[in-house]
Amino acid sequence: MPPRIPKVHCLRALNVLPARHNATPMTLPNRLFSSSTPSQAPEPVKKGGKLFRDPYIVSQARARKAANISRQDALAKEREQALGNAVRGETTSFVESFDLGRDPEDTTALNHFLRHDEINAQLKYSKSLLRPIIAKPSNLATKATQEDYARQVEVKNAEYERNHENVQAALERIVNLDNGSSKDRLRSNIQRCIQHFGRHETDQVLPPKPKATPQMSAQAMRDQQTAREGVSDRADRGIINRVGPDVGSSEVQIGILTAKIRSLANHLDSRGRKDKVGKRDLRLLVHRRQKLLQYLKRKERGGPRWQRCIETLGLTEGTWQGEISL
Predict the structure, then answer these.
(1) In this structure, are 127 and 92 located in the same domain?
(2) For the residues of 80-127, what is the DSSP string, one character each?
(3) Which of 119, 247, 318, 326 can pair with 83 through a Cys bridge, CB separation 3.0 to 4.6 Å?
């Protein structure tokens, strides 16, 4: 009679058999691998309803994040300092003189477009007109009459000199620029910018701007050089004869705008904190100066005229580069 071999059951079925069924000697062992899908895999241990994370790793990550943020803030401050203040730039002696409306060395600057020689000539003329004329008495035979006449002349002359000194002192106070208003100082600053940056003055001092890279052929360059052989050195340097002072070049307008911007910025910092119209005007002036600076840099190709303008006015890259937001 053949031996009786028990039927091999499914492994999954063996796991669900009731405990009363005794395992036979032929029961196969459970498999080591899992047949469940990844979605059915057991979840990690939770603590307090959240995934458990090592506190040391969390503290290290937070420290790295804080160090990164602080480094970004430091780099942003360095970039901002490198660009400079978009409104004021750097303070120079010429820019500081805008507050006075004159050079610091010139303590006798006059207002109303007057000159010292004109004031002295007018004072001399008025003094000659107001000189007192004392009529001589008809009888100077007696000594008492002569002494009385001399005393009258002395008193009149002393009063005349005293009145003239008072007039001269009053006139000096009237025409003194330090006693003028902000409009008077702005008018004086405009005249100083015209004299300092005007091309009727700088053409005699500054060299020409760098020449652009030639885009013409060699033959065209030779023809152009031949045509220039009879041109004078002054015209070859790009200098033209001007009729009057230069009031419209870019550097002159930049200097005038810088004077206006400094005056308005001082007003807003001191007593105009709630002046919304002044803040808007300041923003418009700064943006207008930015456009002129970009044009001047492109036109002069970073030449001596451009360098002199930004060095004298203390303008930094923040005044013409990027977006200016006040």
Answers:
(1) no
(2) HHHH--TTT-S--HHHHGGGTTS-TT-TT-BSTT--HHHHHHHHHHHH
(3) 318
Q: Which 8-state DSSP code applies to residue 28?
A: P
Structure tokens at 326: 């006040």
For residues 124 and 189, membership in a common domain is answered with: no
Residue 11 lies in a domain: no
3-state secondary structure of 34: coil
User: Which token pair is 84?
Assistant: 């400079």
Domain shared by 302 and 259, yes or no: yes
* Residue numbers of the domain that contains 137: 112-175
How remote is the C-alpha of 16 from its chain's centroid? 84
Please report, in tens digits, the pLDDT of each residue of the chain (326 residues total): 566 666 555 545 444 444 444 545 455 555 555 555 555 555 555 555 567 788 999 999 999 999 999 999 999 999 888 888 999 999 999 999 999 999 988 888 899 999 999 999 999 999 999 888 887 777 766 767 778 888 888 999 999 999 999 999 999 999 999 999 999 999 999 999 999 999 999 988 888 888 776 665 666 666 666 665 554 455 555 556 778 899 999 999 999 999 999 999 999 999 989 999 999 999 999 999 999 999 999 999 999 999 999 999 999 999 999 889 88
Q: What is the pTM of this model?
A: 0.68
Query: Chain centroid to CA 81: how far?
Result: 12
Structure tokens at 43: 């979840």
DSSP 176: B
H/E stretch holding 289 reads helix 276-300
201 phi, psi to nearest 5 deg: -105, -40
